[in-house]
Design brief:
Shape: elongated
Largest sheet: 8 strands, antiparallel, barrel
CATH architecture: Beta Barrel
Radius of gyration: 19 Å
Oligomer: single chain
CATH topology: Porin
Distance between the termini: 35 Å
Strand order of the largest sheet: 1-2-3-6-7-8-9-10
Structural class: mainly beta
C-alpha cells in the first residue's frame, strides 16, 4: 500500500508541476457510512485525508487525479453472522470492526463565477477503491480486501485567502460497486458513504 501511495503522489505532483494552470489541494476527510456499510460500522470517520491535483482545460473546466484514505472503526458487542469456507456461525463478544477505504480516481470539475471570487463547483470522480474490511475478536482477526470500481459525484466551494491560496470545502457521495466477497464470504459486497472534506488549495491561475 505504501508503494501505491508513492506512485499516486508522484503522478499528482507531475500533473501540477508541468501544468501551466493548475490547482492542488490537501484535505482532512470525514466519512459518514451508508447502507450495508453502516450495518457493519455505524460510527462516522473523522480520520482521513485527501491529495488532489487538477489541470485547467479552460477558465471553468479542469481535469485531475485524486487519492484519499478514510478509516472507519467501531467497538461493538452485538453478534455478527460469519459465513466462511472454513468457519461459520454466529459470533458474539467484544469486537473491533474496521473499514479502510482508499479511493484513487480521475475527475473533472466545472467552476462557476470569476477567478478571484468565491467559486462554487460541481465535479465527477471515477476510478477504483481499494477497501480493507477487518474484524478483531479477542486473539482472532479476519480480513477481506478487494478492488472495486467506483464513482463519486461532488459539489464544493473555493474561498480565496490571497492570490494563490484558498480554503476548499466539498461534499462527495462515494459508491464502490460490488466486487469479490465481503468478510466471511458474504456477497453483495458494495460500499457507500458520504465524504465531507476541508482543506487548503493552491493555484497559479485564480
Amino acid at each position: 500500500m505504501r508503494l501505491k501511495f508513492i506512485i499516486t503522489f508522484t503522478v499528482l505532483v507531475s500533473v501540477t508541476s508541468f501544468a501551466q494552470e493548475f490547482i492542488s489541494d490537501f484535505t482532512w476527510n470525514f466519512g459518514f457510512p451508508l447502507g450495508k456499510m453502516k450495518e457493519y460500522v455505524e460510527e462516522n470517520s473523522y480520520r482521513g485525508f485527501g491529495i488532489e491535483g487538477r489541470r485547467f482545460i479552460n477558465k471553468n473546466l479542469s481535469a485531475g487525479l485524486f487519492f484519499g484514505w478514510n478509516i472507519f472503526d467501531q467497538r461493538v458487542d452485538k453478534p455478527i453472522e460469519i459465513d466462511g469456507e472454513n468457519y461459520g456461525g454466529t459470533v458474539s463478544g467484544t469486537q473491533i470492526r474496521y473499514v479502510n477505504s482508499f479511493p484513487m480516481m480521475a475527475n473533472m470539475h466545472y467552476y462557476f463565477g470569476k477567478r478571484k471570487d468565491v467559486r462554487f463547483y460541481l465535479g465527477a470522480n471515477a476510478g477504483v477503491y481499494y477497501i480493507l474490511q477487518r474484524l478483531d475478536l479477542g486473539v482472532w482477526r479476519l480480513d477481506s480486501d478487494n478492488w472495486h470500481l467506483g464513482i463519486a459525484p461532488e459539489a464544493g466551494v473555493l474561498i480565496p485567502l490571497d492570490g494563490q491560496s484558498h480554503i476548499i470545502v466539498n461534499l462527495k457521495y462515494n459508491y464502490a460497486f460490488d466486487a469479490g466477497t465481503g468478510l466471511g464470504g458474504k456477497e453483495d459486497n458494495y460500499y457507500s458513504y458520504w465524504g465531507l472534506n476541508f482543506g487548503f488549495a493552491f493555484s497559479n491561475m485564480f
